[in-house]
Write a structure and sequence with these properties.
- This protein is of the alpha/beta class.
- Helices cover 31% and strands 19% of the residues.
- The strands form three sheets. It has a nine-stranded mixed sheet with strand order 1-2-3-5-4-6-7-12-13, sandwiched between helices. It has a two-stranded antiparallel sheet with strand order 8-9.
- The protein starts with a strand and ends with a helix.
């Protein structure tokens, strides 16, 4: 699939005013990002500190992509991450974080966004998704496109057009954490960033589930180690869980097209080299928590979000051996539950999202 960024001049007539005059039921991001895929221009909406098409700020060295939750609320996530950035700038003014750090919040919109504010989307092709955007599924619009393809295009555009970028971080909370869990394994943009000398980091915060890379799952009976279910069907709550490794939780079943372009074993081997953080709130431990995935494939990862994150971190060592902990990390945040603003603005969150200058020196 060929992706190109359409020139600004060729799409200016398609851009629309993004400041709503009335209240809407859903959040509508301020900016449009055009991507040409196989001859069709698709518009990816986003909120950001900069207009990516118009403002190629040479002062930008660090870029934070923040991925919204199930409410598909990019503006809220942008506001919260920008607030975290501003707090980090106060903490360490010598780093000039408010001056050299750009925040971008891509929007994976749904059909309801278009129905809610049709004028916002009337002058271009805006793909929208059901729940599949969490895992890189194709849009429900024609021609279909994966949000992972659009993310790749946006990331590489930033790398090509902001001349002094040194690092790019993807941070996702809740459903956004699910996005980062899958995208960090599947994206090829990582390798292209390395070729440009740009460091990349992926931060997975309090998701309902992680993408496991084989058929091993935690051994809850003993409380340590993992069981390989390659030759047996696991039982969860007295019932067989045949779909425990279906895509999203693993790599079986109906895998989205984006994640079929490279063999699984290649993605697993390349993921070994990628810097990934689990960022877990110590109070996000409610087995009945709001919007918590309680399906049997999710329950095989743990009974609540915190447990699932702790086990996934251990799984990185199980999968890759001691070397797996060389670039796979976990940060736990005391006294915080399922709250993206508090997670991003915590001391732990700010440290891994913004204070990475030592890696770049």
């Amino acid at each position: 699939m060929r992706l190109t960024i359409t020139s600004l001049f060729s799409i200016l007539f398609l851009l629309v005013s993004c400041a709503p005059a009335v209240e809407y039921d859903h959040e509508h991001a301020a900016y449009d990002f055009p991507v040409e895929i196989n001859g069709h221009v698709q518009f990816f909406t986003y909120d950001a500190t900069h207009d990516l098409l118009a403002d190629h700020d040479p002062n930008i060295e660090h870029v934070v992509f923040v991925h919204h939750g199930a409410a598909q609320n990019p503006t809220t996530y942008f506001d919260n991450m920008k607030a975290a950035r501003d707090m980090a700038a106060v903490d360490q003014p010598e780093l000039e974080i408010d001056f050299n750090t750009m925040v971008i919040s891509p929007a994976m919109i749904g059909r309801r966004h278009v129905e809610d504010n049709p004028g916002r989307y009337e002058n271009g092709h805006y793909p929208y998704w059901g729940s599949g955007w969490r895992a890189g599924a194709d849009s429900q619009t024609e021609p279909p496109v994966s949000n992972f393809d659009l993310l790749d295009a946006m990331v590489l555009y930033v790398a090509d057009n902001f001349p002094n970028v040194k690092s790019i971080v993807h941070a996702g909370h809740s459903a956004g954490g699910q996005v980062v869990s899958r995208y960090s394994v599947g994206t090829t943009a990582y390798d292209e960033l390395l070729e440009r000398g740009i460091y990349a980091r992926y931060i997975i915060s309090n998701p309902s589930s992680f993408l496991y890379l084989d058929t091993r799952r935690p051994d809850f009976e003993t409380g340590e180690g993992f069981i390989d279910y390659s030759d047996e069907v696991p039982v969860v709550n007295g019932e067989e869980c045949e779909r425990f490794n279906n895509y999203g939780y693993g790599f079986d079943g109906d895998v989205v097209e984006y994640m079929t372009r490279r063999p699984v074993e290649v993605m697993v081997e390349e993921f070994k080299e990628r810097d990934v953080f689990m960022l877990q709130g110590l109070e996000d431990n409610d087995p009945e928590g709001s919007a918590l995935d309680r399906s049997c494939p999710a329950m095989m990862q743990g009974s609540h979000r915190l447990e699932r994150g702790l086990w996934y971190y251990e799984y990185m060592g199980e999968l890759y051996g001691p070397e797996g902990f060389g670039n796979k990390f976990i940060e736990t945040v005391p006294d915080v539950g399922h709250d993206n603003a508090l997670m991003f603005g915590s001391e732990e969150g700010k440290r891994i999202i913004f204070f990475i200058h030592d890696i770049l020196e």
